[in-house]
Amino acid sequence: MQGLPPEALDQVAAYFQALSEPTRLQILNMLRGGELNVGELAQACGYTSANISRHLSMLMRHGLVARESRGTAVYYRIADESVYALCELVCGNIARQLDRSAADRKAFGRAGATTGTPRR
């Protein structure tokens, strides 16, 4: 991102915003197994078709999913597989942070036990 003009940074922020909603992440996870139509996604997610369509529209705008019409149904698939590598990177980072927090809490608990400080 170094050296990008503000307009480009706006586009990067919008891309991350598309990934910032749990329902959209759920949709991306479901499409990992193959293409699905709006009704199938709605049923699997437990949301209305209108809600899923709105999320799919955002994902399409950012090039994350693609659509294909087949008769009266529209099927969606992942358009950019690299989104999964990005998500794995973020998940790994979160896991490491949680591990560090757990180790810190554990060390704090040991310190309280050795100093006689009551633990909560």
From TrEMBL:
The keyword Transcription applies. Transmembrane segments: none annotated. It comes from the Bacteria. Residues 4-98 form the HTH arsR-type domain. SMART domains: HTH_ARSR (SM00418). SUPFAM superfamilies: Winged helix' DNA-binding domain. Keywords: Arsenical resistance, DNA-binding, Transcription, Transcription regulation. Residues 101-120 are annotated as: Disordered. This is Metalloregulator ArsR/SmtB family transcription factor. It comes from Ideonella lacteola.
